Amino acid sequence: MTLPKLALGSWAFSFGPFANDPWPFPRVLEFIAAAGYDGVEINGFRPHPHPDDYGTPEKCRQLVREISGYGLGISGYAPPFGHVPPALVETDVYLAEFRKSLAFCVNCGITTLRVDSASPPEPLAPEAYQARFARLSQTWRAAAEAAAQAGVRLVWEFEPGFWLNKPSEVLTLAQAVGHANFKLLFDTSHAYMGAVVGARQTGQPERLAGGVAEYGLRLGEYIGHFHLI
Known about the structure:
three-stranded parallel β-sheet, 41% helix, globular
């Protein structure tokens, strides 16, 4: 039986206690390799590889050579889309930024690209909620198709800090996008905060009696990537 490989996200050394002094990417690679991981999941926020800094195939090849020099592969890419929240900007505006990161993935041989809803959770009138939901599902359907044509899987990391963080909302959005190349990134800490704590949910909190396990079972076939925290 082939055991799954384990990667460590480089964002662990960019945010939280590292926010004021993030580790340079080579230092992160050295640490990950020494700790015995098989790969790195790349945080696309500077000083880690930003799509605008790797805009040519040659620069991407150099990056891959650097990473493989530590004996590591790449499990996925989490680029910065905070300036183009997909429920709030026009689809074409989002896709223009999305394609930069998609090209980065293609040039680096990365097969998983992570997105989030980018905007914070906030109470909305029903009309505004439906309008945002429709735009988001439309935009991510188009992004999923573009990624599919490039051979890259698109995964949404739902989490309490961003809009659409209730279990029912996550499942409904996945169904609304309705594209075979659009999957969910199931992060155990986010699942706990959503299904058990009901953190940052607007209105009536939505919790699941079966906690994280029930959450995973409900999402089932939509899960395409996994974070264990």
